[in-house]
Description:
By secondary structure, this protein is an alpha/beta fold.
Amino acid sequence: RAASYEEHMRRSVAEFDEFYRSVAEAIARTKEPIAILDLGCGTGLELGFIFDRAPNCRITAVDLSSEMLAKLSEKHAEKAGQITLVQASFLEFPIGQGRWDYIVSVMAMHHLTPEEKLPLYRAIHKGLKPGGFYIEGDYVVTKGEEEELFKRYAEFRRMHPEVANGAYHIDIPFSPETQLRLLLDAGFAEVEVAWSGEGAAVFVARKLSIGRERKG
Length: 216
């Protein structure tokens, strides 16, 4: 799918440029060599916008597809010295503790259930430096659509148990309400919808700074 991925995203994201620009706008402009982890990076559609705001940042880009990573590397060849490519599942990548100024994920998390997302979000929270940010851009649906999608997913999984082993990519986007609740449950101090458009949104979650109290 790597060959047609960018064309597919331009068709499926109604406000394509605004959406990807909004992901990057959650990153403060800086010339410092900040550390950014991009989970499920694909071909790196967001990276140009990110480098515009943080030209000296160091990005670790994680994706399961070697073809996606190859396209990312080709497209951002001038920044090769600032990008570390990792072919791996972001569910298995060792995020670590207190390593990252920002962690980003764009159009990658909507295949996961709440039970899969919550421990991943906790690992992301742990991996951020104090005061760091997690930025997620993804598809969103209404609460009613979410409930219907979960019902269909549960039935499909009952009929095809191999779904649990990653044999299929099934879209189960969440409502903004569910997404915000999961991020708060994962321990983030402040969460917000930084941008919303037709069927997509950008969520920004902030890790507690040392000496600050959490805001609900």
